[in-house]
Design brief:
This protein is of the alpha/beta class. The protein is 48% helix and 14% strand. An eight-stranded mixed β-sheet has the order 3-2-1-4-7-6-8-5.
Length: 396
């Protein structure tokens, strides 16, 4: 009889293959013959939009961010720009107040309670028919809002998400592993859009119908992930819009990216559990399969690594293959440790960056599960401090 350890190992490996290759392949087959149709931008009636920018201690970046937002190609009389300060303790609020004469509004929370709580508190302040949510650390293409609004002209669509482009200065020490992952993620979202709609919006830039955004959301949940789920519960699809480009600076260190992954996955798990009825394939069909494959399947991967390692250790005494795989795993782990220890001021080589990025994600996932199961889903958020030097936003 075959020892149970090897079936465990191959099952764990199979989950990885399905999550990152099998699922996209199934999407690609499902999308065959379904050409993407870009929504026409010219000639559509422009609704009033509210552009929200939640911030906490963004004094170093907020002025440049607001200048970029004010320069977007959208009529000034058809937009409301609202900065939501989560009780910032630096000069953020004073800097934002200096833009009041140019139409920028500031809402300051009396105490720090987290991003979602701040967004909940400001729901009735939003005047737009469409709410465009963005971040202080990114730069959006000047035409991006028009493309998001054009997508929402389709009455079946409730959420329109940007195409994120990972960028870094030539002299920056940013992790190239992050850039590769962002590109892969955008490809998968494009396939999902062609099949039945994305299962989570980009936190950097997305637009949502006001009536959906105004729904109350528990403070420990992630609104950008929940947006697509709430939309589906109300019968709307969510889509990725390739022409709505958002330039996202890469994190300046693997340590920063690790903390971000723990935070976002912890909140993501809580959000998925809150909307767990959407994982019922008998009621939600294709969307349920996509939600399980894109989110839950990926989020259980850290545990499959633990199971696979345990299975190999059981087999190592009698199997040369198991010993070889354990040795490979040990080498990858050592390279990842080197990447973790790499000086933040020096560019990390790709041969080190990719293993380090992958291993850090696995460990971050384990920590996120532990936090989520133990109820430590802190609502207070610490924005990712990215390389602010994105450069000028292209106009073509």
């Amino acid at each position: 009889m075959m020892p149970i350890s090897m079936p465990v190992f191959w099952s764990a490996a199979g989950v990885w293959v399905y999550a990152y290759a099998g699922y996209p392949a199934a999407l690609w087959l499902s999308a065959a013959g379904r050409a993407r149709r870009a929504a026409p931008v010219a000639g559509i009636e422009l609704p009033l939009v509210t552009i929200t920018i939640p911030v906490y201690n963004e004094a170093a970046a907020i002025a440049d961010t607001l200048e970029a937002i004010l320069a977007i190609d959208y009529p000034a009389d058809r937009r409301q720009i609202l900065v939501i300060s989560d009780a910032s303790s630096d000069e953020t609020d004073r800097i934002v107040a200096g833009f009041a004469s140019r139409g920028v509004e500031l809402v300051r929370m009396p105490e720090r309670r987290g991003k979602t709580a701040a967004e909940n508190a400001c729901r009735m302040t939003l005047r737009g028919e469409i709410i465009v949510n963005t971040d202080a650390s990114v730069r959006i293409h000047r035409d991006a809002v028009r493309h998001l609004v054009a997508a929402l002209a389709d009455p079946t669509i409730g959420v329109a998400s940007s195409r994120d482009v990972s960028v870094a200065r030539i002299d920056a020490a940013a992790n190239p592993g992050e850039g590769a992952y962002v590109g892969y993620e955008m490809w998968v979202r494009d396939l999902e859009t062609r099949v039945d709609g994305i299962v989570g919006a980009s936190g950097c830039l997305y637009a949502i119908r006001a009536e959906l955004h105004r729904e109350y959301l528990p403070e420990a949940l992630s609104r950008d992930f929940a947006a697509a789920l709430v939309a589906r519960l109300h019968g709307f699809r969510s889509v990725s819009v390739p022409d709505a480009i958002c330039f996202v600076p890469r994190g300046v260190s693997l340590h920063q990216e690790y903390r971000r992954k723990v935070r976002t996955m912890t909140r993501g798990l809580a959000t998925l559990y809150h909307h767990r009825r959407l994982m019922n394939p008998f009621r939600y069909g294709m969307f349920s399969w996509m939600l399980l494959s894109h989110k839950l399947c990926r989020w259980i991967l850290p545990w499959t690594v633990v199971a696979a390692a345990a299975a190999l250790m059981v087999e190592a005494g009698s199997s040369p293959v198991a010993r070889l795989l354990l040795m490979i795993g040990a080498v990858v782990s050592l390279v990842a440790v080197a990447g973790w220890s790499w000086p933040e001021t020096k560019r990390i080589p790709r041969v080190v960056a990719m293993p380090a990025f992958t291993v850090a994600g696995i460990v971050a996932g384990l920590q996120a599960w532990i936090r989520a199961v133990s109820g430590k889903t802190a609502a207070v958020w610490e924005p990712t401090r990215r390389d602010a030097a994105v450069g000028p936003v292209p106009r073509g």
